[in-house]
Design a protein that fits this description.
Blueprint: H1 2-36, H2 54-64, H3 72-75, E1 83-90, E2 96-101, E3 107-110, E4 114-116, E5 119-125, E6 128-133, E7 136-141
Antiparallel strand pairs: 1-2, 2-3, 4-5, 5-6, 6-7
Length: 188
């Protein structure tokens, strides 16, 4: 009886080993076919999704499902001129931004905090923030050419200065011949 039990367990072990070998072979074949498949070409008008604003992403999603985007430009409201975005510290729903109000130096405002009375920072993105003002959402973009505000110099921060350009002789002009220095009497 003991030998019959050993024989059965040996058969079961071999059956499980064969099944495991087939499963590994099938998995290896599946991944080999996936890796050897020719990649699909990227469309010429493809854009990086992280670089799209929410309005642009909504337009692209509508286009993807065959609908024409409906007045996305009218939905985007201009941000009030009293707010100015100086930088985004982190993106998403847990980020923060440097926002100046009414020409004052900027201060760090976290998502969910009040920027001004009645205005709350809703979310942050790449060089853009969304503010909630009385239930309406406003988009505030960072000006790419803006300078830092007057009087705003963090301690230990110096503005980078441009390197002076070296003056070079125009092409085609050989350097002047400079005579060798005269020998002194004590040099031999």
């Amino acid at each position: 009886m003991n030998s019959a039990y050993a024989y059965r367990s040996w058969q079961l072990a071999h059956l499980l080993a064969v099944l495991l070998a087939f499963a590994c072979a099938a998995l290896a074949l599946t991944w080999a076919l996936r890796l050897m498949a020719s990649p699909q070409p990227v469309p010429a008008d493809a854009q990086l999704i992280g670089a799209l604003s929410p309005e642009q992403a909504a337009q692209q999603a509508a286009r993807l499902f065959g609908a024409e985007p409906v007045g996305a430009a009218s939905a985007a409201q201009a941000a009030p001129s009293r707010f100015r975005l100086y930088g985004v510290i982190a993106g998403g729903d847990s980020g923060a931004a440097l926002i100046g109000v009414d020409g004052k130096p900027p201060r760090a405002v976290g998502v969910g905090e009040a920027v001004a009375p009645g205005v709350v920072l809703h979310a942050t993105g790449y060089r853009v923030v969304w503010l909630d003002r009385d239930g309406s959402r406003l988009e505030l973009k960072m000006d790419p050419q803006q300078a830092s505000p007057a009087g705003f110099n963090p301690p230990g921060f110096a503005r980078p200065q441009p390197f002076p350009q070296p003056t070079l002789a125009p092409p085609g002009i050989a350097p002047a011949n400079i005579p060798a220095p005269a020998r002194m009497d004590n040099e031999q």
